[in-house]
Amino acid sequence: MAQDPPGTAAASAAPAPVSPPAPVSPPAAPACTACIPALSPVELVLDTEVGSKISKTGDTFAFHLARAIVIDGREVVPAGSAGQGEVIHAKKAGGSGTAGELVLAARFLVVGSQHLRLRSMHIAQQSADAIGKIDAFNAATVMSPVPVALIGFALTGSNSVFPKGTPAIAKTAEAFPVPAPAGSSPAADQTHPQASPPGGE
Q1: What are the start-end ranges of the H helices in the chain?
Q2: Which residues on adjacent β-strands are paired with residue 142?
Q3: Mean pLDDT score across all residues of the chain
Q4: Predicted local distance difference test score (pLDDT) of residue 91
Q5: Residue of 86, 95, 120, 104 whose CA lies nearest to 155
Q6: Dist CA 65 CA 58 (whole Å)
Q7: N or C: which end of the chain has fewer CB within 10 A?
Q8: Where are the beta strands (DSSP E) in 112-151?
Q9: Arithmetic mean of pLDDT, 82-107
Q10: What is the distance, to the nearest Å, from the Cα of residue 12 to the centroid of all Cα atoms in its chain?
Q11: How far is CA 55 from CA 36, 60, 101, in A?
């Protein structure tokens, strides 16, 4: 009786290779149905004086929301809401005529227990030392190893000063879910009531 060559039976019994399971994509995040859209403009007012001579890199400064943020006719962030910014860079004017430098970043507005992140600030200089308009200047790639949220860049022939009460404009950095009205359910907050027909109850 013929015998199989050594090793043939073991080879026949070896299991077939099993392909790894295909990766499963995570479910897509639900769309934000009641949000402050990203890049929405917001009006701010400085509550702290800042300047190239009096401020230091790393200092924080306060501001507040000048005009309420309204979504679908509902006030979602009231005027007066507090916010915080940061001095990214400050340098005094030099005695030889070197310009003073000031880079400011508005970080967030406080909304309830959350922070609404901001970016793209424009700030107006209204002091006797510096008059004019300062354009947004993205200094993140020049002066910081990490992305900077909101930059306003001031560079004048003298020391730049932004007194308390100076107005500024910024934008929201991302879509921000708004708080639900008191006493409403999430489902109700995501729907818009239909107007009653004339003469209806």
Answers
A1: 8-13, 140-143, 186-189
A2: none
A3: 75
A4: 92
A5: 104
A6: 22
A7: N
A8: 114-126, 131-134
A9: 89
A10: 63
A11: 32, 9, 10
